[in-house]
Amino acid sequence: MASPADSMAMTAQIRHLSAFPLDIHSLPDGFVRLDERGCILDFNCRAEQLFGYAANEVTGQPLSLLIPPEWDKPGAGLHWTFPDTGRILSGEGFWARALRKDGRWIEVEYTLRLLGDGGRIAGAAALFRDVSHPWPRVRALDGLTRDANHNRLYPVRPDGAGSPRRCDEMRWAGRISEALDEDRLLLRYQPIIPTQEIDVAERHFEILVSLREGDNEPVPPGAFIPEAERFGLMPRIDRWVVENVFRFVGRHRGLICWINLSSHTLADDSFEPFVEEQLGEHGLDPRSIVFEITESAAIANLQQTLRLIERLKVLGCRFALDDFGSGMSSFAYLKHLPVDFLKIDGGFVRDMANDRVDHAMVDAINKVGQVMNLKTVAEFVETESVLRQLRELGVDYAQGYYISRPYPLDDLSGRAFERRSGN
Question: Residues with Cβ < 8 Å from 415, sequence gap 6 or more?
């Protein structure tokens, strides 16, 4: 427990706390920033939805307007009076009952981080979420507070360790952020080959991103990409990938690299000028880049996706629609998306040699692609018989473990790639 003198020292006011570098309204959860008295300074749009108040109605009001002290978890740390507190807590997994403007009570779970500079407490930031939804990502607060004018966090662990069922998610948030900070992402490539026996000058490769742990063992994308999506970290990952792939392609001409874009990036208006800047910096032919978007992400952000595709195609980049056929309205949306390649959902491809329905689906998607003058790509090609049938149907490209497993991108320049013919 801190001494009264220490507590008084920590309560000295900071004259100015600069704005957070991240748009607080882009956070998926209710974000509230408090001053040193516990009064509300910032209140994002998600908090407005959660608590039912407009930001201008609560600014300057004490947090007790939303969460009466008697309904807060004892000792959790939200309801402090800095000059009189001998112990200030921060942490995650706290629970409380909140009173909405309409008089309805809701249960919330929250994370609290103290803000300060030079060893002094200057307020706090908190993320709130209705407990009926997945818990917000603690690391989002770390990024906000740590980067603002060198303000540091002063987390003092609470008596409890937080909600146990959230621990894995919280650890992932920290691991991903630290990997980005420490440049510990790893780029891998997987070849995409033409199915026909033709001499093709272009060599296509999909770029996959892994995360390197302390033992340098790569963590596959399926293990951390979903968590990065939930934590709002994908735009930062996408830009890291673009910058590093463009640098590599600038040194190794003749490669066509396919780069996956997240749904968050599709809605980011600043991404197109970033790509244009990177193309110029590395002197790339824009046709050497194929941006890959999933069908579900494209449909969820249709207007933003169309704008981004149009802008990047003006620069000369190409687009591929991934996982096609996975949605109920796939064919209806396809004619509205000006893509160049159509990647057939691997769920139809993997067992098409043994499943007549899968075979028929692959055939149908390929024929639609041909009518629309799109090149088709089959994913999850894992056997010789599947590759042979793809050739018979006239699918243009194939990708999968039968062709090649993913390898580190740095190995690409020195690897002699022998394409499987499927004969």
Answer: 407
pTM, entire model: 0.62
CA 93 – CA 134 distance, rounded (Å) = 12
CATH number belonging to domain 174-414: 3.20.20.450
Lowest mean pLDDT among 122-126, 249-253, 350-354, 376-380: 122-126
Radius of gyration of the chain (CA): 26
Burial 170-181 (b: 16+ CB within 10 A, else e): bebbebbbebbe
Which two three-digit tokens encode residue 383?
């056997």
Report pLDDT for 289.
98
What spatial distance separates the first Cα and last Cα of the chain, rounded to whole Å?
74
How distant is the alpha carbon of residue 300 from its chain centre?
15
Give me 359's structure tokens.
């075979």
Helices 221-230/167-181 angle, 10° precision: 100
The number of residues making up the chain comes to 423
Lowest average pLDDT, out of 126-140, 166-180, 240-254, 359-373, goes to: 126-140
- φ, ψ for residue 142, nearest 5 deg: -60, -45
pLDDT of 238-277, one tens digit each? Answer: 999 999 999 999 999 889 999 999 988 998 889 999 999 9
pLDDT per residue as tens digits for the range 77-108? 454 434 333 334 455 567 777 888 877 788 88
Instruction: State both tokens at 376.
Output: 């088709």
Segments making up each domain of the chain, as ranges: 4-162, 174-414
Calpha distance 78→81 (Å, rounded): 10
Position of tokens 């046709």? 287
Does the structural domain 4-162 have CATH classification 3.30.450.20? yes
C-alpha to C-alpha distance for 152 and 283, rounded to whole angstroms: 39
**3-state SS, residue 399:** coil
Give residue 138's pLDDT.
39
